[in-house]
Give the backbone structure.
Amino acid sequence: MKVTKKTKLDKLLKSKKAEKILMEEGLPCVFCPFAQHEAGELELGEICERYGIDAGKLIKTLNKKL
């Protein structure tokens, strides 16, 4: 899977490896009940913007390690 800013959170949360990377990068949504409910609609780029996370760096890391 190629990760982009448009990748939905639910796609990433299917992978334990991706989940670990998201947590390491400080993404608070990984265990948030609201995010779990809305994961099919939340895009990685939007989440990064909302929480001040460098989307480019995170996407590069995800694509490299997944």
The chain has one domain: 9-65.
